[in-house]
Write a structure and sequence with these properties.
By secondary structure, the protein is mainly alpha-helical. It has one domain (about 1-155). About 75% of the residues lie in helices and about 5% in strands. A two-stranded antiparallel ribbon has the order 1-2. Strand 1 and strand 2 form a beta hairpin. Helix 1 packs antiparallel against helix 2, helix 2 (about 45-70) packs parallel to helix 6 (about 135-155) and helix 4 (about 85-115) runs antiparallel to helix 6. The longest helix is centred in the first third of the chain and has 39 residues, at about 1-40. It is elongated, with a radius of gyration of 19 Å.
Length: about 160
């Protein structure tokens, strides 16, 4: 059961990270289009700035699961290192429960916010509802929940490997 969950979690985290990278590419390309249209052609496009903003929001929320999975979110390193091994695991459990609680709140209210925003249109992208922009919150939170549980079941503490 544990290996099946970790396999699913690895696939989901990989998918969310790939989508986050795609959103970053879209944001960069749309930013270049915006600069080109505004300063070269002197025809500012109203849709490019909005698409950059929405892409960046999606990028952040789709990148969070990888940060949770690799143990790169905010952590209490000193307490974890100084604690006895049994307390370390207890501390990891408390952190996982608190993280899951917060992500559950973000998913719940994010979905509510997305539904409320469904009647609004995105300025500059009138054919799209704000639902699609706000949907990043619950989607990212649900992906991140898998990362939190995956990190609890198979802990990785890579946050200090790149520290100076």
């Amino acid at each position: 059961m544990k290996s099946a969950f970790l396999s699913l979690e690895r696939r989901l985290t990989s998918l969310s990270l790939s989508l986050a990278c795609l959103m970053m590419v879209i944001a960069v390309c749309m930013g270049m289009v915006q600069v080109l249209m505004r300063f070269v052609f002197e025809l500012p496009s109203e849709w490019s700035e909005v698409s950059v903003r929405i892409s960046l929001v999606w990028m952040v929320f789709l990148g969070i699961p990888a940060a949770f999975r690799f143990g790169s979110m905010m952590s209490v390193d000193l307490m974890h290192r100084l604690a006895p091994p049994r307390f370390q695991r207890f501390l990891e459990g408390v952190i996982a429960v608190l993280s899951l609680t917060m992500l559950g709140i973000i998913a719940w209210y994010g979905w509510d916010y997305a539904q409320r925003g469904a009647v609004q249109t995105i300025i500059g992208l009138e054919y799209f509802s704000m639902f699609w922009a706000f949907l990043a919150l619950p989607v990212g939170a649900i992906f991140a929940m898998f990362g939190v549980v995956g990190n609890f079941l198979e802990p990785r503490h890579d946050e200090l490997s790149t520290a100076l």
